[in-house]
Amino acid sequence: MTAETAVGVARQFTSRTCQFTGLRVDVAAQNLIKANAVAAVVFLAIGGLMGLLVALTRWPAVHLLPAEWFYLVLTGHGANVLLFWIIFFEMAVLIFASTILLNARMVMPKLAWFAFILMVVGAVLGNVAVLQGESSVMFTSYPPMMAKPHFYLALILFAVGALIVVGQFFANLIVAKEEGAFQGSMPLVTFGALTAAIIAVWTILSGAAILIPTLMWSMGWLSDVDPLVYKVVWWGMGHASQQINVSAHVSLWYLVGALLLGAKPLSEKVSRTAFFLYILFLQLASAHHLLAEPGLSASWKIVNTSYMMYLAVLGSMIHGLTVPGSWEAAQRRNGYDKGMFEWLRKAPWGNPAFSGTFLSLVMFGFIGGISGVVLGTEQLNVLMHNTLYVPGHFHGTVVTGTTLAFMAATYLVLPLIFQREIIWPKLAKIQPYLFGIGAAGISLFMMGAGTLGVARRHWDITFSDAELNFAHSAGAFLMMGLNGVFAVIAALGGIIYVLVVVGTVLWGKKITSGHKLTFPLHAGGAAAASQYGSHATVKLPGTIVLIAIFFVSFVLYYFINWKYLSELWLFR
Amino acid sequence: MSTKETNVNVGGAGAKSEPIPFMQRLLDSPLLLLFLGVAIPTLLYTLWGVMEVVAIPLAK
Amino acid sequence: MAIAPPEQRIWWREPIERVELTWIVIAFLWALFMFFFMIAWHFIGQQNLSPEAYRILPSAYEQKVEEFAKKYQVREEKGVPVVRPPAGSDVYMLGRLWQWWPILELEQGQSYRFHLSSIDWQHGFSLQPTNINLQVHPGYEHVITLTPTETGQFGIVCNEFCGIGHHTMTGKIYVTQKKAETAPRVAQKEERR
Ligand code: HEM
Ligand SMILES: [Cu+2]
Ligand SMILES: [Cu+2]
User: Fold this and answer.
1) Which of A283, A350, B25, C36 suits a disulfide with A240, CB 3.0-4.6 Å?
2) CA-closest candidate to residue A356, choices A414, A404, A412
3) What ranges do the domains of chain C cover?
4) Which among A291, A342, A511 is positioned nearest to A416, based on CA atoms?
């Protein structure tokens, strides 16, 4: 663990060699990763608490907050978890994948610190603006409803910071290659991170294109912002940022498989092509949010909402096979070769990094993925646009998928980057399960409530103050109650996560050389990679069964929704 | 399948003079990919979308 | 390993495993199917959102709706006019802080040119319990040809956040049986649900 000053081909930098992976760790990058990860967890704690308050308010029997507070807290929840938590963590992932994974250095670390400070200022200012109470516009801030200028300013500062780090990702990558830190093609995980970075550039440019005029409008310099144009451009940011998440967490799935099981991609070509499809088409899905809008043609809607003939969905379905497939292949190599599922039964279920990653993979596919395709089908969207189905769907993607994957990765970041042994391993062990079950529950029950017509962002489903009364079915009330119960479970999982992280960072045992990890990595480490690929002999019966179940569920659920649609009133 | 090349981790020297296939070179070029990833959604999604909104006629 | 550069200098030429290839083919065919099914539904389906829309000043739209309501009003409910337009005609509804206005009375099986816009902020037109959900923008008049297929009383909820009164924003549509001109114009009282 002694810091050494290594002589690179071109530049010197202070680094250490990781005793577990053999990777060369640039200390500047390591510190940046720490800072971004800590900031991420802080905003997850704030935003998660807000999520719990929201869910408890929407639980009819509890109905915790008054209306004004509900809308304020909901705005804060969206901003803190969706923007601040996720994006800070992604900055850490980008820095990691472009330096440590490549045995390379961080280019211009001072600039990255400046970007970090910008982002922190933006995130804090955003919270101040929301808590002051005159910016309860939801994080989507659709005009003509107007927030205070510093609300938009906060988002812009945050985005500028993020854009700088994304720029540095590219710089790191190019410099690493030039200085010979790695030979040939970049590793697959870095390629996935590159995908995320590319999508991030478009995301942030879209955000700038619309938030800057909106800021000017809010300051009175512009007379108005067209609500429909706003929505088109804003969702270039709002939805594409979710595609950054997808690319980032899929990369982490590959990373965790490699570190914990010794997994290798079944084929570099297939996995990279799947990411390439993301780069080309994933961002078009921003149109998911404009399917119920006036004035946009069916052609525009169909081309965009289908990510160009569902080619990006094809990419996801490919990862859906190659990720578990590579795990199965690795486990069979590790000796768990009996029957169909020994590889799965004997997987390291007690290691939260693995269990969290596995749950993330399964639930992202089954809950978030399938519901996303259905919701994003041009005509089917009318069945659930702006109902609770929408938050149900995206808690399936961004909570059970991304957030859980990030939590799982944290259990590697703590020992490998912070170099602290995880405190309270028993709690850490159950954390992914608790959070996963809770998050799956809120996703499913919000989807259920939405199917029964319950609106999103809505304080009172009894409509007690409405002039013309309306009542939802008893089933809808039941769904909202169950949603509340599972929100409590998810919050419990979230609290444990935050406690373990904070405890470990502050008081975890320092890891010194010769240390044995509580949650060990795959024995072979990087050296195990003799040859990639599954060899022609490896069969993946377990994965095939999983994929078959997935596909059948997908097809059935898809057609059920067409049946619902066909029973609606007619409109054209 | 080129199983014989297994332990060569390096791109540069020697016998490995076979040209790199086009697709592999594309996937190894971050800036080219960046261009594609920004241009395609800007054209298909943003520009086309905004044009349709702008083209909405005035009510009679 | 996924965390190391590929071991072979040229990895693009490696063969693809049978499982992978099979799945890619299946997934690709499914992708194509889903894509073409959306297009097909425009020909075989009865539920397709019309792209017909116009740019309009909120005040001008408000005026149109008021004229319409005055012309066909049949009664009043809690201060809101109940409007029964002739079958097949243009019907108007507006969203504003915080109500859907006016109340409509339509006939089952008849088609109407249904106009929808907002005069202040964005609102979400959510017809319940049918579950038809449309986004409503100020400044844009959306026109869809709507044919109710069931009779009864339907609620309209707002499902786009529109300020502090958002959860009080409701409206109503009655759908009566198609009994032509002779039948008395009374709303069917059958509660749905
Ligand atoms: C303890 C965990 C969580 C609970 C209990 C929770 C619960 C909820 C609930 C009940 C809603 C309100 C739906 C509505 O009324 O429209 C909501 C909205 C939302 N949640 Fe969560 N959530 C949690 C974690 C997360 C995380 C980790 C993320 C993102 C990474 C997230 C992203 C969002 C977003 C973007 C919204 C929409 C806000 C809006 O409509 O403006 N949530 N959440
Ligand atoms: Cu409203
Ligand atoms: Cu509303």
Assistant:
1) A283
2) A404
3) 16-43, 53-176
4) A511
Q: One-letter amino acid identity for C128?
A: Q
| Residues 6 or more apart in contact with residue A135 via CB below 8 angstroms | A75, A129, A147, A148, A151
- In chain A the domains, ranked by start, together with CATH numbers, are 3-568 (1.20.210.10)
Burial class (CB in 10 A: 0-12, 13-18, 19+), C77: middle
Task: Return d(Cα A484, Cα A489) in angstroms, integer.
Answer: 9
Residue B2, chain A, CB below 8 Å: the answer is no
Helix axes A307-333, A268-281, angle to 10 degrees: 150
Q: What is the DSSP letter of C85?
A: P
Residue C180: band (very low, low, confident or very high) from pLDDT cuts 50, 70, 90: low
**Type of residue found at A322:** T
Whose Cα sits closest to atom 20 in ligand 1?
A78
- Tens of pLDDT, residue by residue over B2-40, are 333 334 444 444 445 789 999 999 999 999 999 999 999
Residues contacting A187, CB < 8 A, separation 6+: A101, A102, C1, C2, C3, C4, C5, C6
User: Structure pTM?
Assistant: 0.93
pLDDT per residue as tens digits for the range A421-459:
999 999 999 999 999 999 999 999 999 999 999 999 999
Separation between Cα atoms, residue A539 and residue A534, nearest integer Å:
8
Residue C168 exposure: Cα atoms within 13 Å on the Cβ side: 10
Q: How many whole angstroms separate alpha carbon A542 and alpha carbon C44? A: 39
How many helices and strands, by DSSP H and E, does chain C display?
2, 12
Structure tokens that stand for A123 in this block = 């995130």
Q: Is some CB atom of chain A closer than 8 A to the CB atom of C135?
A: yes
Cα separation of A518 and A421, whole Å?
A: 7
Say yes or no for a CB contact (<8 Å) between A283 and B37: yes
**C55 DSSP β-pair partners:** B58, C140
Percent of chain A with pLDDT over 90: 88
Show residues of chain A in contact with C25, CB under 8 Å. Answer: none
Q: Give the residue from B56, B58, B60 with the most C CB atoms within 10 Å of its CB, the best one to mutate.
A: B56
Alpha helices in A2-108 (DSSP H): 27-58, 67-77, 86-98
DSSP state of A259: I
Closest CA to A63 of A494, A484, A488: A484
Compare all CA atoms of chain B with the CA of A531 and give the residue at the minimum distance. Answer: B6
Q: A523: how many CB neighbours lie within 10 A of its CB?
A: 9
ipTM reported for the complex, 2 dp: 0.92
Residue closest to A553 by CA, chosen among A386, A420, A388, A365: A365
Residue A278, pLDDT above cutoff 50:
yes
Which ranges of C45-115 does DSSP label H, i.e. alpha helix? 58-72
Sign of the CA dihedral running A56, A60, A65, A70:
positive
SS3 of A423, please?
Answer: coil
**Nearest C-alpha of chain C: how many angstroms from B38?**
23
Q: Is C38 on the interface with A (CB under 8 A)?
A: yes
- What would the pLDDT profile of A518-557 be if each residue is shown by its tens digit? 998 987 644 444 344 444 446 889 999 999 999 999 999 9
Q: Please, which residues bridge with residue A24 across strands?
A: A17
Q: Is A481 helix (H, G, I), strand (E, B) or coil?
A: helix
Taking CA atoms, A125 is separated from A150, A205, C28, in Å, by 7, 21, 46
Give the phi and the psi of residue B51 in degrees, each rounded to 5: -60, -40
In a mutagenesis test of the B interface, which of A107, A210, A228, A230 is the best target, namely the one with the most B β-carbons within 10 Å? A228
In sequence order, which residues have a C-beta less than 8 Å from that of residue C21 and are 6 or more positions away?
A: none
Measured at the alpha carbon of residue A207, what is the angle toward residues A202 and A208, in degrees to the nearest 5? 100
Kind and range of the H or E run holding C26:
helix C18-44
Backbone φ, ψ for residue C175 (5° rounding):
-120, 120
CATH 2.40.30.20 corresponds to the domain C53-176: no
State which residue of chain B sits closest to A532, comparing Cα positions.
B6
